[in-house]
Design goal:
This protein is mainly beta. It contains no helices and 10 strands.
Length: 104
């Protein structure tokens, strides 16, 4: 699916169904994934992500940076935003300072 962020169009995986559980896990090719949910953890994700939490109307609520899980317990974190309905996971560096999201 195509998503417009700050006037830049990006192709991401649509993971709003059952594939929400997987998101960017085991994925080394996709630029991102849109998942239904407001909490993310990072097992089997090989790169840092920029998490854009969105409300029911896909309006940007919050942005967080997420790091892959390692053997270091400090990386064992759940990233969440209670007000969000969706999370757009993007590989870090694809978008700088996101301010608007439009689902095409």
């Amino acid at each position: 699916m195509k998503i417009k962020i700050n006037k830049k169009i990006i192709e991401v995986k649509d993971c709003r169904g059952l594939s929400s559980v997987r998101g960017m896990m085991f994925d080394k090719k996709s630029k991102g994934a849109l998942i239904r949910g407001n909490s993310i953890w990072m097992p089997f994700v090989s790169t840092s992500l920029c998490l854009l939490f969105l409300d029911n109307n896909y309006k940007l609520i919050e942005v967080q940076e997420a790091v892959p899980m390692t053997l270091n317990p400090k990386t064992w974190k759940v990233y969440n935003c209670n007000r969000a309905a969706y999370c757009l996971e993007l590989r870090k560096g694809i978008i700088k300072n996101p301010v608007s999201v439009v689902i095409a």
